[in-house]
Design a protein that fits this description.
The complex is a heterotetramer of chains A (about 325), B (about 325), C (about 325) and D (about 300).
Chain A lengths: L3 E14 L2 E14 L3 E5 L6 H9 L7 E10 L2 E2 L5 H7 L4 E4 L3 H4 L6 H12 L4 H14 L16 H13 L5 E5 L7 H18 L2 E6 L2 H7 L2 E6 L2 E7 H6 L4 H9 L38 H4 L5 E5 L2 E4 L9
Parallel strand pairs in A: 3-8, 3-9, 6-7, 7-8
Antiparallel strand pairs in A: 1-2, 1-4, 4-5, 9-10, 10-12, 11-12
Chain B lengths: L1 H28 L4 H6 L5 H10 L6 H13 L13 H36 L4 H15 L2 H15 L11 H31 L2 H8 L4 H31 L1 H6 L5 H10 L3 H29 L1 H7 L15
Chain D lengths: L1 H12 L12 H9 L2 H18 L36 H36 L3 H15 L2 H12 L3 H28 L2 H8 L4 H37 L11 H8 L8 H28 L6
Helix pairs in contact in D: 2-11, 3-4, 3-11, 4-5, 4-7, 4-9, 4-11, 5-7, 6-7, 7-9, 8-9, 9-10, 9-11, 10-11
Classes of the chains: A alpha/beta (about 325), B mainly alpha (about 325), C alpha/beta (about 325), D mainly alpha (about 300).
Chain lengths: ~325, ~325, ~325, ~300
């Protein structure tokens, strides 16, 4: 087994919203090996972005707070790092691509300056050299270097996302976190951007944490998958584990909800109901209310996290006693 | 850009015509005979008739108005009844004082207001933030004439540090400039705070943090640059207001600025002086507004690209088609 | 089966400071009663404008619109109001399309009040209650406001409002795009049930290929204001004839493990629909483009029976 | 007992029909407002000022106009809370009675300018094109003249009386309302829910009154509240210049103006009327600020 570049152990994150506490992440445990691509899949409000921001140390505080757990990057706990040490890691060791390329770039600065900024921060180069490197990075992501002096509004959405990728990869990070990098883009542009991310990942030997709600994108890009629901990982495994043998009722429900291009289904099998209010999470399994197979056991107590085949973990009582 | 400025100046013409029409008719229809004010109570009917004849006051309203506008276009605002001096000359001797006073007040307001606003936004809900917000709220609620009088009581009467009136040394400028700046300072601070709060939550600020940039650079380089437009608007309109609204403060501190000139003109029914003064101030205000728009384009590349003629760039707002 | 909606040479141009934007350019189609026409394309292709123009939310620039055999291209104010009781729209964003100052019951009652279809408040209440049941909205939400509800429930309000007047034709503009997949499936099923129950005709506008395949009888692919391909849903997914359709469908990520999956990439991005030059609008990105593609507009032709394509080289590319 | 029975019936009836209505958003807004201590504080002072304006005799036994030359320039004491002025009039009583003048001017001015401005702005925003252009050029002219100078010259032309002062101040503040209304009508007009209303066949009038105006109300209400404060300040400013309320009517601005001659020796003459102006303006500003936060359409989800 090769080395884990990232390990999250039992992470808890909360936001305070007036009198209520939003329990966004509730004991997430994840690991990502060097060179791997892990897809973190879930719906709105499942805690995907919060997890990513926790790794970056960018949870807005207040109102957010990490209340427990460890985030180990190359074996070192990032939660114990000072802000100054974290600044050296952000953009250099760990980079992040955000969802909406329209708003992720500063409209007042040229794109060249915005790429050069991260290079200047982490590499010992002059301003002119950094700008030169920025132009080279633009070429790498498929935009003419000559456009470095233009402003974000002069680029289309797909081009902006390429620039965001250039910023993220400019310092050759070991870990790239991509938060819904293609959700805001049209399919043909999405294909271009995914191709670019994959190419660069291979070129720079970067590990990837891909956050998305799109099981199709994960199938194309990732080799490991984690399904997240109400701030918990409900199923984790290799691509084959999840796609050939989806085991958690929620995962099964997700697949049943998507119309398939390659086969004709007259009727979808949606998951009934809604995700529970994160300020009032139920006791026991958070999915029990919507689950067709829920029984009394599911309503109270901790839900076991069970390895049903090597490397395939499921958080569901129905597998209790069926450990591999 | 030049084309745009030219267009804006052309668009000012009808507005200024409207302004002259309003001021002209107000002075024309206001009660009392001009001749009575100028010639005194002892003047005979013949004297008054002669005065009206000489000044063209017996012509019909429209004729008087048209001839006034025709002269005003050439920069001739007529002769002040009180001093027999050209109105333009009187304005030119009073305006620089008002301009200087307003400029000092505005600079002070911007420097202090913006600083407090930024700090207040960055440390939202801290003691400092709450205190600054309270002060700003009081600042916009202070009647300036009263503030001026209270400052005179404190610094001139009680402490004896600063002179209460006139403008003969730098010390004289402190009280009136400070009084004038209060409202703008508070307004600037409030606008800076709210637009910074908005900017800090933007995605690109998060991007900058994700690069590993230090907090101070994130705030100043990324957030503040984007928050600056509404602040410019507030500061600009406040500055324009100072030029027109300095009348009260100039009265309190006995300063011969353009505001006091116009108020004195109204009290003596000196129509040419009042009309000329108001038109002058209105033009100055419009030019300031134009300047604000130019600064906008200078600061924001998206607005700049809209003005750049010839070379077509993508407009910032996408047309909604899909 | 009878034709409910027919559009002939429909054009909608917008004046912009930079020129004439050809949002919808010379579109022809028919929809049979009780069927669903899926309209697919990427952002900026004019699909929403097309839907809005058909139901007179935008006034067309040129062309003819027929509804139930009647020419409805030009309508007086009174006729328009009458027309609108037969055609309705479901919007993409279930938050911004609901007046935030009205409660759920008020929103649903609104069309009934406008057309005075109910005699008194008791009858109105009954009707609103019936509509809420129809779309699966619990009655306890009657007095709630849209911002208090989740996206799925909000979209149910939008659907109930559209159903209130018993319309025959509904334009659905990306009705599930703003929703999470599990909710999306609930809404899609609801829409299919309603279609069966009330014999509704849909024009379903979306950018999501799998959704459109699932719900449509016929599919129209749009690119920059033009219709590039039209056929039945099954046929279009089996035989993708237009190069753009090929690329579009190839780009859709499929949630399956496919060995040796390779992406077919289009180069370049969508060009501007403002004052387009003659020639095929897809030519700049088309891997098969020849000289003629840059000079002449391709006409929509029946390449295979019932399968229409606008491409100069359709025969060569597909070896027909 | 009967009441309970009725209730039961109502419940039964509602099982097959829905009462069309809302539980109202007022409750929510009031709730948000009440949580803001500063705003509630502002509201309390506003309420106090209104009561003082309506029933000044409740607060003072002195006639605000009666002169008592034996009691001139008395410093604040338990007898005369704020002291007396150059005619021996009780300053506290004049400040309380001055409340009426200021509130009257403030409220009437805001009512007039708000109605006129909102109508102009709404018409301009809804019917864009030529109508919009003509109306907005007119507003531009009003904006081009500084408010103080506009007010001064109108009062000078019409004469110094309270109604004329109100007219002058109203004309000056119409432009603000027109702009705020126009902008928010324009942005509301472009929303999808207005489009949705069109698609269900709603008439122009229905769209304006049920869709556009209710959604534009928040910024207008806030503007109105805040501009009561500015109006009070401008009115007292004009009075200070001798162009407002004629003596001997008790009015804060003219009190400060006549007290100017005595600031070297008798500080209380100028201090209290000014404090009154500030308190009034401050409370309306606090109230308006709180309203803005409470009415904020960006509801947290």
């Amino acid at each position: 087994m090769s080395e884990n570049i990232l390990e999250i152990k039992d992470l808890y994150v909360q936001y305070s919203a007036g009198k209520d506490t939003v329990r966004a992440v509730n004991g997430i445990t994840l690991s990502l090996e060097k060179g791997e691509s892990l897809g973190l899949v879930g719906e709105t409000g499942a805690g995907k972005t919060t997890t990513a921001l926790s790794i970056m140390g960018l949870i807005p505080n207040p109102p957010g707070k990490i209340t427990g757990g460890e985030i180990l990057y190359r074996g070192e706990n990032l939660r114990e790092k000072s802000e100054k040490e974290m600044r050296k890691i952000r953009g250099h060791e760990i980079s992040m691509i955000f969802q909406d390329p329209m708003t992720a770039l500063n409209p007042m600065l040229t794109v060249g300056d915005q790429i050069a900024e991260v290079i200047r921060l982490h590499q010992n180069v002059t301003k002119a050299e950094a700008f030169q490197r920025a132009k080279e990075m633009m070429e790498v992501v498929g935009i003419e270097g000559g456009r470095a002096n233009e402003y974000p509004h002069q680029f289309s959405g797909g081009m902006k996302q390429r620039i965001v990728i250039a910023i993220a990869l400019a310092c050759n990070p070991s870990l790239l976190i991509a938060d819904e990098p293609t959700t805001a883009l049209d399919v043909t542009i999405q294909a271009q951007v995914l191709e670019l991310i994959e190419q660069l990942k291979r070129k720079y030997d970067t590990s990837l944490l891909l956050i998305t709600h799109d099981l199709g994108v994960v199938a194309e890009v990732c080799n490991k998958v984690a399904i997240i629901y109400a701030g918990e990982i409900v199923e984790y495994g290799t691509l084959a584990h999840i796609y050939k043998n989806p085991s958690h009722p929620y995962t099964i429900g997700l697949f049943g909800s998507i119309p398939n291009l390659n086969e004709t289904v007259t009727r979808l099998k949606p998951i009934p109901g809604l995700m529970p209010d994160p300020t009032k999470l139920p006791e026991g399994c958070a999915f029990a209310e919507r689950c067709g197979e829920a029984c009394e056991k599911c309503m109270k107590g901790a839900v076991p996290y069970i390895e049903i085949e090597p490397g395939h973990m499921v958080r569901c009582t129905k597998f209790a006693g069926k450990e591999n | 850009m030049l084309k745009y400025i030219f267009k804006r100046i052309i668009m000012m013409i009808p507005v200024m015509l409207g302004v002259t029409f309003i001021t002209f008719s107000m002075m024309y229809f206001s009660p009392g005979e001009t001749a009575d004010y100028i010639l005194g109570e002892l003047a005979t009917e013949e004297d008054k008739a002669l005065f009206n004849e000489q000044n063209g006051l017996n012509r019909p309203f429209i004729v008087q108005y048209v001839s006034y506008v025709a002269d005003a276009v050439t920069g001739d605002f007529g002769i002040s009844y009180a001093t027999r001096q050209p109105v333009m000359k009187e304005i030119m001797s009073a305006f620089p004082t008002t301009m200087k006073l307003s400029l000092w007040a505005e600079v002070f307001a911007i420097v202090i207001g913006v600083t407090l606003g930024v700090v207040s936004a960055v440390k939202q809900y801290s003691f400092l933030d709450n205190a600054t917000r309270m002060f700003a709220m009081i600042g916009v609620s202070l009647p300036s004439f009263w503030e001026g009088l209270m400052l005179i009581i404190l610094f001139s009467v009680v402490l004896g540090w600063l002179p209460p009136s006139g403008l003969s040394s730098w010390k004289h400028w402190i009280l009136p400039a400070f009084t004038l700046s209060t409202w703008g300072l508070a307004a600037c601070m409030r606008m800076t705070r709210s637009s910074m709060l908005e900017a800090i939550r933007e995605d690109y600020v998060r991007t900058a943090r994700a690069k590993g940039q230090s907090e101070i650079v994130v705030i100043m380089k990324h957030a503040f640059r984007n928050a600056v437009l509404p602040i410019i608007t507030v500061a600009g309109t406040d500055f324009a207001k100072l030029l027109g609204g300095a009348a009260v403060i100039e009265t309190v501190f006995s300063i011969n600025g353009i505001g006091k000139l116009i108020v004195d003109g109204i009290n003596t029914k000196n129509a040419p002086l009042v009309q000329g003064g108001i038109l002058f101030v209105a033009i100055a205000m419009s030019l300031i507004n134009l300047m604000i728009d130019i600064i906008y384009a200078f600061v924001d590349p998206r607005i700049r690209s809209q003005y750049v003629s010839g070379k077509k760039t993508k407009a910032p707002k996408k047309e909604k088609v899909s | 089966m009878s034709t409910l909606v027919e559009v002939q040479n429909l054009k909608k141009y917008f004046k912009t400071p930079r020129g004439l934007l050809h949002a919808v350019d010379d579109i022809n189609f028919k929809i049979e009663r009780g069927q669903t026409l899926g309209v697919v394309g990427e952002s900026g292709c004019g699909k929403s404008t097309l839907g809005r123009t058909v139901i007179h939310l935008h006034e067309r620039t040129d062309g003819k619109i027929f509804f139930d055999g009647r020419d409805v291209s030009d309508l007086s104010k009174q006729e328009l109001k009458e027309f609108r009781s037969h055609v309705q729209m479901i919007f993409q964003d279930p938050f911004s399309s609901l007046n935030p100052r009205m409660s759920v019951s008020q929103l649903i009652a609104e069309p009934l009040l406008i057309y005075k279809t109910t005699k008194n408040s008791a009858e109105l209440g009954k009707e609103v209650g019936r509509l809420m049941d129809t779309v699966g909205l619990a009655r306890r939400f009657a007095n709630s406001y849209p911002h208090e509800l989740d996206g799925g429930r909000r979209q149910r309000i939008g659907i109930a409002r559209a159903l209130a007047l018993n319309p025959e034709f509904i334009v659905c503009d990306e009705p599930v795009s703003a929703l999470d997949v599990s909710i999306q499936a609930q809404i899609l099923n609801l829409m299919q049930d309603l279609q069966d129950e009330f014999d509704l005709t849909y024009m379903f506008i979306t950018h999501n290929m799998s959704v459109v395949k699932h719900i449509s009888d016929n599919i129209m692919i749009m690119y920059l204001g033009n219709m590039v391909e039209f056929s039945s849903a099954e046929e279009i997914f089996k035989n993708r004839l237009h190069p753009y359709t090929k690329a579009l469908l190839a780009a859709v990520p499929i949630p399956e493990i496919i060995e040796g999956r390779k992406r077919q990439l289009l180069t370049g991005e969508i060009t501007s629909p403002i004052d387009p030059k003659p020639g095929c609008r897809f030519a700049a990105r088309c891997p098969y483009a020849t000289d003629i593609c840059h000079q002449e507009n391709p006409q929509l032709e029946e390449a295979i029976e019932g399968h229409f394509v606008a491409c100069h080289n359709v025969k060569e590319i597909n070896q027909l | 007992m009967a009441a309970i029975k009725n209730k039961k019936q109502a419940v039964n009836a509602s099982s097959n029909e829905v009462a069309v209505g809302g539980h109202g958003q007022a409750k929510e807004i009031i709730g948000r407002f009440m949580r803001n201590k500063a705003a509630v504080f502002g509201l309390v002072i506003v309420a106090f000022l209104l009561i003082a304006a309506m029933f000044p005799q409740l607060f003072t036994k002195y006639d605000p106009i009666a002169q008592d030359l034996r009691a001139r320039f008395l410093p604040p004491s338990s007898e005369h809370l704020f002291g007396t002025d150059e005619y021996g009039r009780d300053i506290f009583s004049r400040v309380i009675y001055g409340c009426r003048t200021s509130m009257e001017i403030g409220l009437v001015t805001v009512a007039i300018s708000c109605v006129v401005g909102v109508v102009i702005g709404a018409v301009a925003g809804f019917y864009s094109g030529v109508t919009d252009n003509v109306l907005m050029r007119f507003i531009d002219i009003l904006m081009a003249i500084p408010n103080t100078l506009l007010g001064i010259s109108i009062v000078a032309a019409l004469g110094s009386t309270i109604p004329n002062l109100i007219i002058a101040l109203s004309i000056g503040s119409i432009a603000g309302y027109a702009r705020v209304t126009r902008v928010s009508v324009l942005s509301t007009k472009g929303t999808e829910y207005v489009e949705a209303a069109y698609s269900t066949g709603a008439s122009d009038a229905r769209i304006i009154f049920k869709y556009i105006l209710p959604n534009c109300l928040a910024p207008i209400i806030v503007q109105a509240t805040m501009s009561i404060a500015t109006t009070i300040m401008s009115a007292t400013g004009l009075s200070f210049l001798g162009l407002g309320v004629p003596p001997p009517t008790p009015e804060w601005g003219s009190m400060a103006s006549s007290a100017r001659a005595y600031i070297r020796d008798y500080w209380w003459l100028v201090t209290f009327p000014g404090l009154a102006i500030m308190t009034a303006a401050f409370s309306f500003n606090l109230f308006g600020d709180g309203l803005r936060d409470a009415l904020d359409p960006k509801l947290k989800t």
